[in-house]
Write a structure and sequence with these properties.
InterPro entries: AB_hydrolase_1, AB_hydrolase_fold. Keywords: Hydrolase. GO terms for molecular function: hydrolase activity. The chain is an alpha/beta fold. Helix content is about 35%, strand content about 15%. It has one domain: Alpha/Beta hydrolase fold, catalytic domain (Rossmann fold). It is built from seven helices and six strands, in the order H-E-H-E-H-E-H-E-H-H-E-E-H. The longest helix is centred in the middle third of the chain and has 13 residues. It is globular and about 45 Å long.
């Protein structure tokens, strides 16, 4: 947080957007409140930014059989803004962003993932037990496995994967994959969205 405060003014000089729509998806058990600084950063750079608006991220409940609420929100945002939406997802939110890009052709402009373990099995992290406890799902559930496999397939839109070798909870090799522009930063997993290097990397990815 001290680094963020020290770097905040300088980060305002990063490449700017021109009102393009961006939706930020939170990590496991987090809500839009956890990403307030990231959204403020991108708004300052000229993007039209919204949170996902679905409360805490409890996994596939947001995209499963209960109405595919996340997909509906992305489609509605694209319709309102008259342009496809860039998705920025932290951890589990990144997997959801990639699945949305697979299922909503023409509605997603690009995907930026932050510490998102989309390129490996669910049990290849140190958070799978927390995922089971908080989501009510099991990682050996065929539906969960199918969603992770879907998230790991190459996308048809520009994709940036921001990852860290010092993450501590998910390994770097499963946070990047085929067809991604991989950007390495030095960061822990917890509160990665407050890291100035990550905020810079997101801005550069959106402006590419």
């Amino acid at each position: 947080m001290l680094r963020l405060a020290a770097d905040w003014r300088a980060m305002g000089e990063l490449p700017r957007g021109r009102g393009e729509p961006v939706m930020v998806l939170p990590g496991l058990f987090n809500s839009d409140r956890a990403n307030a600084v990231l959204r403020r950063h991108l708004r300052r750079l000229g993007y039209h930014v919204e949170g996902w608006g679905l409360g805490r991220n409890l996994g596939q409940r947001a995209i499963g059989a209960d109405g595919e609420r996340l997909f509906d929100r992305i489609e509605a945002m694209a319709e309102r803004r008259g342009a496809p939406v860039a998705l920025v997802g932290i951890s589990l939110g990144g997997l959801m962003a990639r699945i949305a890009a697979q299922r909503l052709p023409g509605r997603v402009a690009r995907v930026v993932t932050i510490s998102s373990p989309f390129a490996g099995p669910p049990d290849a992290t140190r958070v799978w037990r927390a995922y089971q406890a908080l989501s009510g799902a099991r990682i050996d559930d065929p539906e969960v496995r199918a969603l992770v496999e879907e998230a790991g397939r190459p996308l048809g839109v520009p994709t940036t994967a921001i990852w860290s070798a010092s993450d501590g909870l998910v390994g770097g090799p499963i946070c990047r994959g085929e067809g991604c522009d991989a950007v390495q930063v030095r960061s822990s997993h917890i509160w990665v969205q407050f890291n100035p290097d990550v905020l810079r990397a997101v801005a550069m990815a959106l402006a590419a």
